[in-house]
């Protein structure tokens, strides 16, 4: 298998990267990038709105069937590939963190959106008809501003993008959680901490301390909202990163173990097999996209 999965930058996908955003009709985008069906990851944030077509999209080893009205959000670093029908269409938006934050001047504000937490399932949302209409209208407005309006008012493009993101977040939060409870907010903070600290912090007590709650309370909230313990949530993130590293490049198993703070290659292999049913070598050899 191909063990090296490229990281695509914004400049890979657009003629000019000075403004750090690309938006296109999805059918046209696929035609221009017809060779990109191989597994790859991005250094930028990625949005796809599906208005028609079918097929499937694989994100971080999770397979999602495509239906009209879906919107996909992908954070930098996630691995994906796809197989779409010939009539698939919609919109694609790629932008980097600097483009977004240069407008809001809020560090890491984009990572506060629930769909950009790095969890594949949270980034795939089915929009109801009214919201889909609003999202497609905003997407077309952004497309026209970026590609056909001269001069381009870049602050306006950022405003449109922010409107789209906040509109989906507002609607999705109400649909999935009603009023955002303190326990739900705690889970999201916990997951954001895991995203940055999973390689160095393995114990729920370390995260509980940062969140100003007891380990027991954190565990109860995780079981309530996620169906498993706080420790399992941490381990799941370690396993995901191990899978990414195993298919992304030619690092040895020992190098991957050390990069994930395992002091012993044998312990890493046992840990990985316990959670996946395969050894790292078997996963690397058998992984099929």
Automatic annotation (TrEMBL):
Coiled coil: none annotated. PANTHER family: ARAC-FAMILY TRANSCRIPTIONAL REGULATOR (PTHR43280), TRANSCRIPTIONAL REGULATORY PROTEIN (PTHR43280:SF32). SUPFAM superfamilies: Homeodomain-like, Regulatory protein AraC. It comes from the Bacteria. It comes from Fulvivirga sediminis. This is Helix-turn-helix domain-containing protein. Keywords: DNA-binding, Transcription, Transcription regulation. GO terms for molecular function: DNA-binding transcription factor activity; sequence-specific DNA binding. Pfam families: AraC_binding, HTH_18. Residues 188-286 form the HTH araC/xylS-type domain.
